[in-house]
Amino acid sequence: MTFSLKKFFSGSNGWVSIALLAVVILVVFPLAFDLFRLNLTGKYLTYAFVAIGLVTLWGYGGVLSLGQGVFFGLGGYAMAMFLKLEASDPESTKIQSTPGIPDFMDWNQITALPWFWEPFHSFTFTLLAILVVPALFAYFIGAAMFKRRVGGVYFAIITQAIALILTILIIGQQGYTGGANGMTDLKTLHGWDIRTDSAKYILYFLTGAILIGVIAGLRWMLATKFGRLLLAMRDREDRVRFSGYDVANFKIFMFCIAAIVSAIGGALFTLQVGFMSPSFVGIVPSIEMVIFTAVGGRMSLVGAVYGALLVNAGKTLFSESFPELWLLLMGGLFIAVVMFFPNGLAGLYEKHSAKLKMLLQSLLARRGQVAPAPVSATVTPLEPEKIVIPKARARSSKGKKRVLTSEGSR
Amino acid sequence: MNAARKEFALTVEDLSVSFDGFKAVDGVNLYVERDELRVIIGPNGAGKTTLLDLICGKTKASQGTIKFKERELTKMAEYEVVRSGVGRKFQTPSIYENLTVYENLEVSFPRGRSVFGCLAFKRTPDVTERVNAIAETINLQDHLQREAGALSHGQKQWLEIGMLLMQEPELLMLDEPVAGMSVKEREQTAELLQRICKGRSVIVIEHDMQFVKNIAHRVTVLHQGKVLCEGSIDKVQSDPKVIEVYLGH
User: Would you call B83 an interface residue with chain A, using a CB distance cutoff of 8 Å?
Assistant: First the structure.
């Protein structure tokens, strides 16, 4: 888990890796998959938003939240409320006893649109709500916890409790929320039918592009002094506090950012899947999202996206054949990753990428009938990759030289 | 030492704290002047570290006052105490092992301490200049780009002192700064402390009497949460009460 600026250019958080991810998401997948699979992938990518939020919050900030589904849900529900209102125009709901309100309200003997639904007629308000509501919610939870120095396991448990409370609330207030079924039959966005094939393509690309944009934004943030301070805080919270920083504010900010990012994912989820339900809010999805992050690598924004894709692909494959076994497998996977690969896929990649590249280059060299000399020549530029080898082994004099160059390139 | 002068940098009066009825610090009075290097000694459990915790706000006092530059510290949050000019070094080296020496010092630079200040922080020439100057003071100028975790124990101790110096504190509190250091490193540290106490007040907790002799202007002996004796090192060492509880053993 060594940290240096060099990593931002070469490691799994580097621009190269981000560009590669963009190509995979925006070019490779659309070419390789049919619409059904692409739509599924798009859904997984919305989970990736939560996963990258967790990279900054948990990986860098050291704050583990087991309730990120709450924010995913808040974003998703905000979008669903707008779409549901649009789908519930008086014309298409004229068979209801109260036309013009969402169907589930009518079923629950509600005769007028509740006040908090009214503003969701406006798309601008909805977009703002997707960003602001989760941020405010995170701010209040964060302020209540972090100012009192609640952290670690206690914080994780409380976030779990909040996820549970919100699920119960949504299910219990069926007339206002659609209950356990969620909000279904979402049809159009400003008259644009989101169920058509072309809409599915467009929404997929929108999701991919926003994801890459958010990753770039977070990467920038982690490269500032703020990112260094997060790491400092994770390792020596007291030292940061006694260097004149109000540690709680940094945690609250991080929690809000992770919440906003998750909510964006939730809103895009609703658009792509066409419904939102409490099963994406509660404890199980929240923990699943932590697993995506752990598998992908909690220190790597790009890795977390691959983690989300891979685990979900596995879930889809396995749960078709062995639905009973999937949850056990998932739990086992989490334990295995935490025990054996604490930095997940990204950690593995960074550990072996130097070797891998050397192997590739020697293969290429042989193919091109080039003498071995260029192979050894290419070893030098590979050195930066070694920067991510665990601390104990990265203490050679070469290490010093490498980081020096990173200062120069700044 | 001009005793008649009443301008103390730090005034601690009647300070007490109890943990579940146990009085760790009990009615302590302490006056430290500017440019003074005060050493606090005392047997284990005498309340030395707790006293520093109280001054820097890590522990809240049950009663008493702590005035620093005419400002009351007991009601402040830790970061406010730090911003008012108090620096604290912990007993075990407390540095950011995953950051380089340069980054360790830079993070301690007193600018951009808010969330948005951090996001907007730029590595300007004055930062670099100051980092380099401090690195030279603490003998780490050749290790700036090394990861702090890879430093030797003594170097880590110096780095933490350097991180405090970055803040330009007017009161510097060091908890056993030479613990685990070699003889040569101790000498270098003594010399470092002599240099950095100019223009500020320094409080050091230490067990090594030879080291105390080298650096102390005045010595305060704590015993069971109370001040047992105070004065020059010679006076303290010849005090029968001190010999009884501490030096004699």
Answer: yes
